[in-house]
């Protein structure tokens, strides 16, 4: 299998107050929309989207998302959207809301509009959803025959979101190049169903460059709730560059290890996707045998953005060897993305998890962090 495949959304729009233009972007597409957002996001952006739609003569059915991108939730919202004969499905919120909106839109064969309210993960652009059990355990990737039609990224809303969400998005995006370059080196398959194009490789590499250049300034901008060129750069890196870069560039160990962590119970469930991916990325770097300086470059960057680097940081201080092996086994099940770039056993992954924790703990100790 050697064909190169690159996929992408039809239109990506990013800037301050862009949601005010939703009516003009949807002109001629249809008139019956459903808008999906969780309780928090309804007040932050959902009502504003609906009022813009109504002003532009669209009808909009409001649906409250319950918080988990699960089969049951997708079924429930699909039924509600069918009752409205919706031809446009609009997801507003974080990755789980957006993944649910994509699935609902697929069921209805509708036009898909994605409005992320945080740059917290690279979910907006892809032609797939990550599906979980109602208890938040990773179940499967669900693939679609096309990417979202329209993505509206309003940087005013994103600047006002909690800085922790932006940092999480940076961590998710930092995994993109680490994973893509591993897949390229191995000749593995990407989420787009082929091997990596030069285009996706360039995007993924540019993603990492942008993060190291502007990550700190953007994080400080988010703390001050202001839109700056650095914030705009990081929103694009977290959303567009990371989204295209992971999907057509390739996922490898970092995300498989993230998925493995969802199999554990306890406080780790309160961590964001990006925070778990940060630790997963460190584990992948350990598996790859990099120099101390290279590994420390990542550890230092994560720490400076208040991201987790040790098992204690991800609430697994008391994890047993069996727990770690459970994670490693889940990360290496057949079909997991780790096999796109590594020929490893669960045992080797478990050792890398323990070593990553040990390296980061030693780093923190030596700098008294
Ligand atoms: N489909 C894909 O390609 C893809 C890619 C990456 C991640 N994902 C998935 O996305 C999910 C992670 O997304 P996430 O990190 O956004 O988490 P999330 O969707 O679980 O949660 C985001 C949280 O932030 C809140 N929020 C959103 N915007 C806000 C704002 N402006 N102000 C205050 N609070 C706000 C939401 O209410 C929600 O509680 C995971 O399920 C992951 O697997 C999917
Ligand atoms: Zn991710």
UniProtKB/TrEMBL annotation:
Residues holding NAD(+): 38, 95-99, 117-120, 126, 128, 132
Binding site for glycerol: 122, 172, 255, 273
Entry keyword set: Metal-binding, NAD, Oxidoreductase, Zinc
GO MF annotation terms: glycerol dehydrogenase (NAD+) activity; metal ion binding
Domain Alcohol dehydrogenase iron-type/glycerol dehydrogenase GldA: 9-155
Pathway: Polyol metabolism; glycerol fermentation; glycerone phosphate from glycerol (oxidative route): step 1/2
Domain of life: Bacteria
Cofactor binding note: Binds 1 zinc ion per subunit.
Pfam (any one): Fe-ADH
GO cellular component terms given for this protein: cytosol
Keyword Nucleotide-binding recorded: no
Signal peptide region: none
InterPro entries, per database record: ADH_Fe/GldA, ADH_Fe_CS, Glycerol_DH
CDD domains from the UniProt entry: GlyDH
Cofactor(s) this protein requires: Zn(2+)
Enzyme class: oxidoreductase
Catalytic activity, as annotated: glycerol + NAD(+) = dihydroxyacetone + NADH + H(+)
Enzyme Commission no: 1.1.1.6
Similarity remark: Belongs to the iron-containing alcohol dehydrogenase family.
Protein name stated in the entry: Glycerol dehydrogenase
Organism of this sequence: Lentibacillus populi
